[in-house]
Specification:
The protein has 88 residues and is α+β, with helices and mostly antiparallel strands. It has one helix spanning 26-48; strands spanning 2-10, 13-15, 21-23, 56-61, 67-73. The chain starts with a strand and ends in a 15-residue tail after the last strand. It holds the Pfam family DUF6894.
């Protein structure tokens, strides 16, 4: 088993993983990072209702604390102003 560290960034806030997790491979760590980022995004959307969540980033480091991958989730909403409907 390899040790991977998952540092989580939500907007300007950071939660650095001090302990790490034993995971079988980099691919398995990637899947865990994707799942974590997706769950965080879902939780943020449920809390905010109408607003877009802050950018979410999960940075994965190996047992030597070398950065090996990043998963980023962001949501951008562009509203298009509609012309008022006129009665003729």
């Amino acid at each position: 088993m390899q040790r991977f560290y998952f540092d989580i960034f939500i907007g300007p806030d950071a939660n650095l993983d001090a302990d790490g997790h034993e995971i079988g491979s980099l691919r398995a760590a990637e899947i865990a990072a994707k799942r974590t980022a997706g769950e965080l995004a879902r939780d943020q959307l449920l809390k905010l209702h109408d607003a877009a969540p802050k950018g979410i980033r999960v940075e994965v480091k190996n047992e030597h604390r070398q950065h090996v991958l990043t998963v980023t989730v962001s949501l951008q909403i562009d509203q298009v102003g509609l012309m008022p409907h006129s009665s003729v």
